[in-house]
Specification:
heterodimer, A: alpha+beta, 2 domains, four-stranded antiparallel β-sheet, 4 helices, B: seven-stranded antiparallel β-sheet, six-stranded antiparallel β-sheet, 24% strand
């Protein structure tokens, strides 16, 4: 019964830059929120300790920013096989998804401003299973994303759910 | 069953059908209810705040918005027309801004005919047509004559080459009654289906009753203070209150079951399953056999002891609801245990006679125990810190949780046959889920940090509109299962790309 996973295609080097930029942005946003909370607590009469909160948040997120993107980049992988698309990802919660080719309803290619500047794109794969995307591959080069999308939507499809 | 296409009329030949002139009147109550629910966030604080509620000008804005929404809803109902043309149901509404919706007959998952109380008085029904596209019905026609509703459903079936009138001269199969529910059975079903909603209703009602009767009872309590302050009276009154609460729960739950399923009857028409039931709102659900995605056998311990269970049938139509029973497209409330295999085989003919389940991975028990200990400590430690000796009682949760974890682990099981995946979970609330492998949309193997330590993982199977999680298995096996589980269906080649006119 045991069938080993196929050899997975890894994300390009640019995806690591994307993950790092995202982690930095996350750190900035959560740091700002923590600072606003600290400011509020300070105005409420607490003198100095509230400012330890944003310091702790930024320190914690700095450690995460240094460690997490690299690990996440190593864990992301995908493989397009004859009968399905396999996506593997996750640092804390490791997940391997198989989406049978015949069940794919539509495929989206997204490019946010950071992704556009790095020449990357995010592929989202939808089946009839739910309201959100069933599979997502971030940090693909635009060419790979377009080629993959083309190969996925051109495959034979089951007619109805 | 034949899938021969029937001769279709051209769009010009098919006239539009209007809803009944009384349709806006029938829609008034449900639309008001819907708008009321939306505005509940504004109304509830006002009710509880009494005189410190919203200021008058905010009320004017809220009421203005409610009336505008109601007028828009009624306008839409009054201007709705429909027709079945080109193998599609076309629904049109609006005069100034016209909206047309096209629902392909082949994509219809199930249809529902509802007759709420006001509609019953007016001799009308509502029709809901569901596809796999979203959380609510794609086609909702309020205020049809019953014969028009049946004609619409039949014409959708005829287009798909199904139903009694699919082929002229073809033999119409006799309808078979698969299940019926008696009043006693429904009361038992209600008594064993205590959801969070029912508990909230009963708690609210008890609060209101205590508020109301407090002033009346106070003089009597003062007169009998000696007797009431006797030792043991606290426990007695607590027991009486608990019994009254339980009785209230049973009463509300039983009433809900009777309201929803009174006169329940499930009929097999050959190509479809048709369920009819309901006391005030009469509901008829028609599910295509070919569209059944998942069947769930719900057997809580109490129901098993009383010798029955319930069966939920799910199609790809996505319904919202807190309870699984609310989300199921078709629910058979009372199925005697002896009849269960026979009825299940009606929905899933490939179901084997015996189900030799494989148990959960032995290390899953360790994980369950760690989770039980963590949860107990999380509750009991703060309770002891803040409430002292009384809070320490919460530590009793620990053996109870450990006991529950063992039971849940011991009675899990899964089975993969050539065409099906069968998953059994829970001891206190046993649920057996049957999924057709050809209906699987995606499979994912997951491994959390705790599972990684034990080398186990779990597998989630998604079908359209629902999902099921297998008990824990070894991580290697979980990864292998994502390859093994989805069965290939007979599929057709993609259509060639359409050429645009020059």
């Amino acid at each position: 019964m045991t069938a080993p996973l196929p050899t997975l295609e890894r994300l390009p080097r640019g995806a690591l830059t994307l993950f790092r930029i995202r982690a930095l942005l996350r750190m900035a946003i959560f740091g700002a929120i923590a600072f606003a909370v600290a400011l509020g607590l300070n105005f409420a009469g607490n003198e100095h300790w509230p400012f330890l909160l944003p310091c702790a948040v930024v320190l914690g997120l700095s450690v995460l920013t240094a460690w997490y993107p690299q690990r996440a980049h190593e864990r992301w992988g995908w493989a397009l096989r004859e009968h399905d698309l396999v996506i593997s990802h996750g640092v804390l919660l490791h997940e391997v998804v198989s989406i049978p080719a015949g069940r794919i309803q539509h495929v989206d290619v997204h490019q946010g401003p950071i992704e556009r500047s790095l020449g990357l794109a995010r592929l989202q794969i939808y089946t009839a299973a739910g309201s959100g995307a069933d599979g997502e591959i971030p940090g693909l080069t635009r060419e790979t994303a377009d080629a993959l999308r083309e190969r996925l939507v051109r495959r034979e499809a089951d007619d109805v759910v | 069953m034949s899938s021969e296409p029937v001769a279709l009329a051209s769009p010009e030949e098919v006239s539009w059908k209007r809803l009944s002139p009384k349709a806006p009147l029938a829609a008034l109550v449900p639309l008001s209810g819907m708008i009321g629910r939306v505005l509940l966030g504004a109304l509830l604080p006002t009710y509880f705040a009494h005189e410190r509620g919203l200021p008058a000008f905010v009320w004017v804005i809220v009421m203005g918005m409610a009336l505008s929404l109601l007028a828009a809803g009624l306008y839409e109902v009054a201007t709705t027309s429909y027709r079945v043309v080109d193998a599609q149901l076309e629904i049109r509404s609006g005069v100034f801004t016209k909206t047309s919706r096209f629902i392909e007959a082949a994509r219809v998952q199930n249809t529902e005919v509802l007759q709420p109380f006001v509609s019953k008085l007016l001799g009308l029904v509502e029709v809901k047509v569901e596809t796999a596209s979203g959380g609510k019905a794609d086609g909702h026609l309020r205020g049809l004559a019953p014969e028009d509703a049946q004609a619409l459903i039949q014409s959708l079936q005829v287009i798909r080459g199904e139903g009694p009138a699919a082929l002229p001269g073809a033999e119409v199969p006799a309808e078979r009654v698969l299940s019926e529910a008696s009043l006693g059975g429904l009361l038992l079903y209600g008594a064993t289906a205590l959801g969070v909603g029912v508990i909230a209703v009963v708690m609210g009602a008890m609060h209101e009753i205590m508020e109301t009767f407090h002033k009346l009872l106070l003089p009597w309590m003062e007169a009998h203070w000696e007797a009431l302050a006797a030792p043991g009276m606290v426990w007695l009154s607590a027991a009486v209150a608990a019994l009254a609460g339980l009785f209230g729960l049973w009463l509300v739950s039983g009433a809900r079951a009777v309201l929803r399923f009174h006169g329940f009857r499930l009929v097999d028409t050959g190509t479809h399953l048709r369920a009819v039931g309901g006391l005030i709102t009469r509901r008829q659900v028609t599910v295509r056999r070919a569209r059944v995605q998942q069947v769930v056998l719900d057997e809580p311990l109490l129901r098993r002891t009383l010798g029955f269970g319930s069966v939920e049938v799910e199609t790809a139509g996505v319904r919202t609801g807190k309870e699984a029973a609310d989300r199921a497209e078709l629910l058979v409330p009372v199925v005697p245990t002896a009849r269960m295999p026979e009825l299940l085989r009606e929905f899933v003919p490939e179901l084997p006679d015996t189900l030799p389940f494989r148990g959960a991975h032995p290390k899953a028990l360790l994980r369950a125990r760690i989770r039980a200990v963590g949860l107990s400590v999380l509750v009991a430690a703060p309770a002891t810190w803040f409430m002292g000796a009384w809070g320490a009682v919460a530590w009793l949760l620990l053996p109870a949780q450990l006991f529950g974890a063992w039971f849940d682990w011991r009675f899990q099981g899964w089975l993969v046959t050539e065409t099906l995946v069968v998953v059994r979970q829970g001891f206190w609330r046993r649920r057996t889920t049957v999924v057709q492998r050809s209906r699987i949309q995606s499979v994912r193997a997951r491994q959390g940090p705790l599972e990684r330590g034990y080398g186990i993982g779990h597998v989630r199977i998604d079908v359209a509109g629902s999902h099921v999680v297998l008990p824990s298995v070894g991580w290697e096996e979980a990864q292998a299962l994502i390859d093994v589980l989805p069965a290939r269906r007979v599929s057709r080649a993609p259509r060639p790309a359409a050429r645009l006119p020059a």
